[in-house]
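Suppose you are handed a protein chain with no further information: no name, no annotation, nothing but its sequence. What can you learn? This example shows the usual starting point.
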Amino acid sequence: MAKARVWHFIEAQILEVIGVEYIDEIKVLACSDEENYINKHKFRVPFVSGCRELGEALSRVRERAVLIRIQVLNYMDDDELFAFAKRISTSYDLVAQTKQMGRLPVVLFAAGGIATLADVALMMQLGYDGVFLGSEVFEGSDPFKRTCSSYSSCCDALQ
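A reasonable first move is to predict its three-dimensional structure. Written in structure tokens, the prediction is:
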């Protein structure tokens, strides 16, 4: 991943040509352009964009950002959290819980391409609350016994 400044599409073009896997569009100066983000539709490489609130996040997604970076809650004290909760018309408790968890307080599921118990273990260690197993797990003879056996072995190995 490499950084390109907001509006500096030439920087993004150079990064794409040299083969970076992601472009992180950042605001580095107080004078950075708040309105004219890079037209991400002209690039094959995915973009990461920062935002301060949901509307801005949705705008970055519409522009084709594939990762959104939101850090504002991490730096707020209790008074700022309270004011922020009031400004967005939600409860202080929900905002404080979001800050404490470091993510939205919703159940986070992984799905798609989860075919082995190693895949499940990876998703759980990455912080997912649940995993939808692919049907491949249940193919073959006695899938229940095989899954339980693999699960026990996997859990023993990870502890």
